[in-house]
Amino acid sequence: MSTVQISASDVNKLRQQTGAGMMDCKKALTETNGDFEAAIDFLRKKGAKVAASRQDRESNEGAVIARTSEDFKTGVIIELNCETDFVAKNAEFIAFANEIANTAVQNKPASIEELYNLEIDVENSRVKIGDAIIDKTGKIGEKIGVSKYEVIEGDKVVAYIHGNYRLGVLVGLSKAVAGADEAGKDVAMQIAAMNPVAIDKDGVDATTIEREMEIAKDQIRAEGKPEAMVEKIAAGKLNKFYKDSTLLNQEFVKDSSKTVAQFLDTVDKGLTVTAFKRVALGA
């Protein structure tokens, strides 16, 4: 056991540096003979053990952050999860999620693994995001981690966060024109509400088309329609699916007399959506 006197000011200094509790900081300094660097490692190791012990816990709460770069050419969405709604609403947790999103949009990592290797500022030092998450897990006592990370690029990217950080949307537009910010937000709200499967029918994958056709054919046969009519009627149902489920063909929520494509055309001739991402908490 250490014989070094650990003062209250030393404990408070370590607490300010690490965010750990008073008793944890005192124990860390005592165990490491007052060596601050060793004490920080001690606390981090404790946090890592807490993180490891909570890997079997469900972490379906959290915050979804959508962010664009300063030039509005890049956008990212991250979902940072925790275990309880109480932690998810904590200002420090939201600030941590925003810091991760800011770093992501500046660096555009290709994966969550690459994101975890980027560094952020923590108590006046540079720390890898993965290590910061372990430290945060140790401090909060809940399993924390980034479960989703999306990035898009475009001539104009608009970000939208809905429902107290529970859903995030990115919209890439084909042109950075007057009115693009407001139009992008309107389209993002459309995506949040209607959850389209693709931009238009060309973006629907073959598996989805095949599934929709099979469902339609089974319904038609169940109605007793002649086999010769099945393909034609099923094709009509598929067109209805495209209208309901692809973004540009959907009725515009704010004006049902127009499709989303027609709405964008009124903002600027030829304006369209080039990409979008939608992330819902826990989905």
Computed CA radius of gyration, to the nearest angstrom = 25 Å
Question: Helical region count?
Answer: 11
Q: Globular, elongated, flat, extended or rod-shaped: what is the shape?
A: elongated
| Biggest sheet details | 3 strands, antiparallel
What portion of the residues fall into strands of 2 or more residues?
Answer: 15-25%
Identify low-pLDDT runs. Answer: none
Q: State the helical fraction.
A: 40-55%
Give the distance, in angstroms, between the N- and C-terminal Cα atoms: 49 Å
Q: How many β strands by DSSP? A: 10
GO molecular function, one term: translation elongation factor activity
Protein name: Elongation factor Ts
Keywords: Cytoplasm, Elongation factor, Protein biosynthesis
InterPro entries: EF-Ts_dimer_sf, Transl_elong_EFTs/EF1B, Transl_elong_EFTs/EF1B_dimer, Transl_elong_Ts_CS, UBA-like_sf
Description:
48% of the residues lie in helices and 22% in strands. The protein contains eleven helices and ten strands. The protein has a three-stranded antiparallel beta sheet with strand order 1-2-5. It has a three-stranded antiparallel beta sheet with strand order 6-7-10, with helices on one face. Strand 6 (156-162) and strand 7 form a beta hairpin. The mean pLDDT is 91.
